[in-house]
Every structure is written in C-alpha cells, then in structure tokens.
Amino acid sequence: MDRGEQTTGTRDEQFNLVSVLYHALQEADTLEVYIFDAETSGDERLAAFFRETQAMHVQAADRAKELLGIPETPAAGGVPPDAISGGIPPEEVPPGDVAGGISPGDISGGIPPEPGDTPPGGGSHVG
C-alpha cells in the first residue's frame, strides 16, 4: 500500500483536509453555545473572544473546502434553489414533475391508488 493513502484508498491529504474541515465546523458550532452563555451572563468581552475564535474556525473550514474543491455555499440558513429540485433550476422543472424525479407512485411503492381513494389530509389524487 502506498504510504500516501489510507486503507480506504483516500489520499492522506484529502483525509487530513476533511478532518480539519469537520473539526473546524464542529468547534465553530460549539462556540455558538459559548457565545450564548457569555452574552447571557453579560460578559461581552468573553462573548467577543468566542466570536473571534469562531470566525477563525469558520475561516479554516472555508479554506479546507476550497482546497478540497468544494464550491462555496450560501450564508447560514440559505439553500441553493437547485438543491431542492435535484440540481435542476426551478424554472426548468417540467410542470407536474416533483423535485428530484420522485413521483407519487414512487412514494406509494408504485401501487396505483384505487378509484375513489383519498390520500391522508383529505386532498385528491392528481393523475
């Protein structure tokens, strides 16, 4: 086995970058609790320190993503529109198609509804 690979076939550099990314994001998330605690206790000096530390971890995570070739994502809470539609921009999803290519028949296991059946919630079948 090449010394530059893990037993999984992943190069050490990739593994190391993923590890840094994971731990930086984990720490940034943990620091959110510390910031809240400091603000709750009224210690703005400590809260500012935790915010600065959190920003450093976010910056390290962003750099690791860049080195891994992971595209930049929207700000917290944002979801790119094409993530919901399975990678298809919303304006290109054909009418009647469900995002991601799932149809109601897929959800029901491919069993067509019986005539007159009403789905949960009282709606009517589209077909």
From TrEMBL:
Species assigned in the record: uncultured Rubrobacteraceae bacterium
Residues covered by region (Disordered): 71-127
The name this protein goes by in its record: Uncharacterized protein
